[in-house]
């Protein structure tokens, strides 16, 4: 089953991303239980923001033979990242047997292929459990609901899109006892091997920065203010900084990691870049968005002060070497949250602000959600009329809430005890 799933090239945001969901539905639909209860097998259309491709997610439900509302939720994703890293072997990335031959690593204990680990093996496990339970509903004294989704490798549009369907089941009275994700994971610590169960989940935020500098011809360098220099200073300070990590119970995950940075500019010119951006992966265990926002404001202020200090120092050095292009005057530090900049823009732009901004967003066309978000912030900055330099702090999607507060609550304790028993 894993091999069959791997053979479906369900790359995130591709036209075939949802094909595993259709494959699973067709496989389960011939089981007598689902033939008798077709409403318990639903292929749902879930919104895929910024993409022209349609995304479908599948929900399968099997009720225990003894009527109960107690239910266990299983989740899994069937999309995979692209295969560019396979290089010349890309044509074989979705064929486990042929790929093993090409690699010269034929081994019955190893299965190759994109998605064989992340996470079509886990999807296959869940399908097998559903099949077995549907044929013998006396196996468990709980109901099982399994949700198979796409877009996990991007912005979790599949899982977010299925939340209303899960909420409807709760309204019917289903009582979800636990959620089980069968995706394999590494221990995250060197020298740790053996059976592993992860409890809860880290949170994730995407701290993002928009830097507006001041344009000028390179010959009049110190009349301008380089957004490229400013954003690079910011990234150099924030990247991997241990002070911004969020440890829990003496264990820490990696600190901030820059996922993208760049200059916003069309074509070539000898003008100092006046717009740039950067965004980061940020794991959370205790930190709230408000706490991370405070960190962002401090990072932006530090980066801007260091940029001005560098420009002041270089200007003085050049003047001593004979430069006569004028001195550099450090600007005031202007750091905004996106809400603050939006309030300024709404006031300065006038009553048509919201209508014009919404029109801009609606006519932007499909594309990556992060890129669309950055363009929107850039547009708000233009509408604000604010002169650079300044930095705007905001969040880009996705936001994944944290769930690490496993307590003495009987439900939490039951999950912990059960996990320990399975591991032992």
What does the model show?
By secondary structure, the protein is of the alpha/beta class. The protein folds into two domains: 2-201 and 408-423, 3-Layer(aba) Sandwich (Aminopeptidase); 203-395, 2-Layer Sandwich (Alpha-Beta Plaits), CATH 3.30.70. Helix content is 37%, strand content 17%. Strands 6, 7, 8, 9, 10 and 11 form a six-stranded mixed β-sheet that branches. It has a five-stranded mixed β-sheet with strand order 1-2-4-3-5.
Residue share in helix: 25-40%
**Overall geometry:** elongated
Mean pLDDT: 92
CATH class category of the largest domain: Alpha Beta
N/C terminus separation: 28 Å
Over all CA atoms, what is the radius of gyration? Answer: 26 Å
Largest sheet: 6 strands, mixed
How many helices? The count is 12
Strand share of the residues? 15-25%
The structure class reads: alpha/beta
Low-confidence stretches: none
Number of strands: 11
CATH homology group of the largest domain: Zn peptidases
What is the H-and-E element order?
HHHEEEHHEHEEEHEEHEHHHEH
Summarize the structure.
This protein is an alpha/beta fold and 424 residues long. It has helices spanning 2-6, 19-29, 32-36, 96-103, 120-135, 157-172, 227-238, 289-320, 338-349, 353-362, 369-384, 410-423, and strands at 41-46, 55-62, 70-77, 143-149, 175-181, 203-205, 207-212, 257-263, 275-284, 335-337, 390-395.
Topology:
Blueprint: H1 2-6, H2 19-29, H3 32-36, E1 41-46, E2 55-62, E3 70-77, H4 96-103, H5 120-135, E4 143-149, H6 157-172, E5 175-181, E6 203-205, E7 207-212, H7 227-238, E8 257-263, E9 275-284, H8 289-320, E10 335-337, H9 338-349, H10 353-362, H11 369-384, E11 390-395, H12 410-423
Parallel strand pairs: 3-4, 3-5, 10-11
Antiparallel strand pairs: 1-2, 2-4, 6-9, 7-9, 7-11, 8-9
Helix pairs in contact: 7-8, 9-11, 10-11
